[in-house]
């Protein structure tokens, strides 16, 4: 097999097994055949996640749970949330999702806590930026908005700043892998509209110094968004699980918005996140209205227009079926498993943990090539997440990873993988790297990497060759 064939087989694994549709079929394909093909693909692709061998990605893991959610989805799959007169159920369900999330995040401590439902973490983060831009323009007359967040903040924030024409200052980290508060203080200008911190961040699972940054936001009358897209629905139960973490929610003075993804540790289907605000007069700045359009008066709470009520119904069903006790029980298993993982990594002298994580554990090495370690783990069936600056891996613990004996097996495989990496000749390139930029390319190579990846994206939207 040629290298080209191997490459195409890796990204188009079904091209030799199922028909490739480059145009509409002349006659419709039999429904039974369609469902059989989809079932085959789904069953094969779920195998690794079902075994608990995947970091992150698969948060609940029970197919019985997913079946229940798809039953809820089916009732409203065809409904359009934009048409509230036809589907007032969406008002009930959406409002209750927001209210339940605010309860977890101690919204009672805020001035007038409220929120909206979005399509996911990226939209929540980008919407928050848009809101702060509009708030600063209308309330403070700022026309050249600036924002500040640590280098570990999610890239969706940079995407939003790019879309909305906002200048970004990327804060360095202190030795504990958290945002450098004093550096952020030094970068605040009259044009600063907001600062952002993570609880916890995607690379290392670390909670930034929320209290100190909240005080900065109050001092300068600027917005302060806490990105809890990944960690919100797990860290929100830490106190109930006896896990000590710093406060990150609306109990912290200065916090004006928080995002938390219901489609991650909220255990809903993909496509929902909650963006919470400390007060309604801030939320109103994200709304779009147009009164002079011939098609009628138009109003939209966010970026999306038409939305299916199905995913809202499924999210609501997930939350009310689990209840607080269900969330706490799962969270306890995750925190306990992460603690075992941390202890096990600490027993491997070549590895070191980054920061002080509680549910997502990142580790690096000064002695072995961490991507060679990752390659050896992959050979043993594991799928980790690669990081860069520094080169590292992380294991984001989810419910499937809490199965008895699984994390113990991972630690055995990890120790063996380190030994494999120690025996690899110097200069031999690893197969794996960091998904977000071919780790180790260095800042000087970032533009070339971005160009390469942009071109590679074309493959995801073209039919198999």
SSE blueprint:
Elements: H1 3-11, H2 31-50, H3 63-76, H4 89-104, E1 114-118, H5 121-140, E2 146-150, H6 155-164, E3 167-171, H7 181-187, E4 192-198, H8 210-220, E5 223-228, H9 232-235, E6 257-260, E7 273-277, H10 280-283, E8 288-290, E9 298-300, H11 309-346, E10 352-353, E11 360-364, H12 370-379, E12 385-387, E13 392-396, H13 406-422, H14 446-457
Parallel strand pairs: 2-3, 2-4, 4-5, 5-6
Antiparallel strand pairs: 1-7, 6-7, 8-9, 10-11, 11-13, 12-13
Feature tags:
Aspartate Aminotransferase, domain 2, alpha/beta, globular, 7-stranded mixed β-sheet, 465 residues, 2 domains, 4-stranded antiparallel β-sheet, Aspartate Aminotransferase, domain 1
Textual characterization of the structure:
- The structure is a single chain.
- The protein is built from 14 helices and 13 strands.
- The longest helix is centred in the C-terminal third of the chain and has 38 residues, at 309-346.
- The strands form three sheets. Strands 1-7-6-5-4-2-3 form a seven-stranded mixed sheet, with helices on both faces.
- It folds into two domains: 75-318, Aspartate Aminotransferase, domain 2; 324-450, Aspartate Aminotransferase, domain 1.
- It has 465 residues and is of the alpha/beta class.
- Helix 3 (63-76) runs antiparallel to helix 11 (309-346), helix 5 packs across helix 6 (155-164) and helix 11 packs across helix 13 (406-422).
């Amino acid at each position: 097999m040629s290298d080209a064939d191997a490459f195409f087989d890796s990204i188009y694994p079904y091209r030799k097994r199922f028909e490739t549709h480059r145009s509409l079929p002349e006659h419709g394909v039999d429904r039974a055949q369609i469902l059989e093909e989809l079932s085959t693909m789904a069953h094969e692709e779920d195998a690794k996640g079902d075994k608990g061998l995947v970091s992150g990605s698969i948060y609940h893991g029970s197919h019985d749970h997913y079946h229940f959610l798809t039953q809820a989805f089916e009732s409203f799959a065809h409904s359009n949330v934009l048409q509230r007169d036809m589907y007032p159920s969406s008002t009930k369900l959406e409002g209750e999702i927001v209210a339940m999330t605010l309860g977890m995040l101690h919204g009672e401590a805020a001035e007038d806590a409220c929120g909206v439902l979005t399509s996911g973490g990226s939209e929540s983060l980008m919407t928050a930026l848009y809101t702060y831009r509009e708030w600063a323009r209308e309330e403070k007359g700022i026309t050249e908005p600036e924002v500040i967040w640590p280098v570990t903040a999610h890239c969706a924030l940079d995407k939003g700043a790019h879309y909305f024409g906002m200048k970004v200052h990327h804060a360095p980290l202190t030795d504990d892998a958290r945002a450098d508060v004093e550096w952020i203080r030094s970068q605040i200008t009259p044009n600063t509209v907001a600062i952002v911190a993570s609880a916890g961040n995607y690379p290392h699972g670390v909670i930034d110094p929320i209290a100190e940054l909240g005080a900065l936001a109050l001092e300068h009358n600027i917005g302060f968004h806490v990105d809890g897209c990944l960690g919100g629905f797990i860290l929100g139960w830490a106190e109930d699980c006896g896990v000590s973490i710093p406060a990150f929610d609306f109990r912290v003075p200065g916090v004006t918005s928080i995002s938390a993804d219901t489609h991650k540790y909220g255990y809903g289907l993909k496509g929902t996140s909650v963006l919470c605000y400390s007060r309604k007069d801030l939320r109103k700045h994200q709304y779009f209205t147009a009164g002079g359009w011939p098609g009628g008066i138009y109003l939209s709470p966010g970026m999306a227009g038409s939305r299916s009520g199905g995913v809202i119904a499924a999210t609501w069903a997930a939350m009310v079926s689990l209840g607080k006790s269900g969330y706490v029980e799962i969270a306890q298993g995750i925190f306990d498993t992460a603690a075992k993982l941390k202890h096990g990594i600490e027993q491997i002298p070549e590895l070191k943990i980054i920061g002080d994580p509680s549910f997502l554990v990142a580790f690096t090495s000064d002695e072995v090539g961490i991507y060679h370690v990752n390659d050896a783990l992959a050979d043993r069936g594991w799928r980790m997440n690669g990081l860069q600056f520094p080169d590292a891996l992380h294991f984001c613990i989810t419910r499937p990873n809490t199965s008895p004996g699984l994390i113990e097996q991972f630690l055995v495989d990890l120790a063996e993988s380190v030994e494999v990496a120690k025996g690899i000749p110097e200069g031999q390139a690893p197969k794996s790297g960091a998904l977000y930029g071919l780790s180790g390319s260095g800042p000087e190579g970032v533009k070339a990497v971005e160009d390469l990846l942009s071109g590679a994206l074309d493959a995801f939207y073209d039919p198999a060759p």
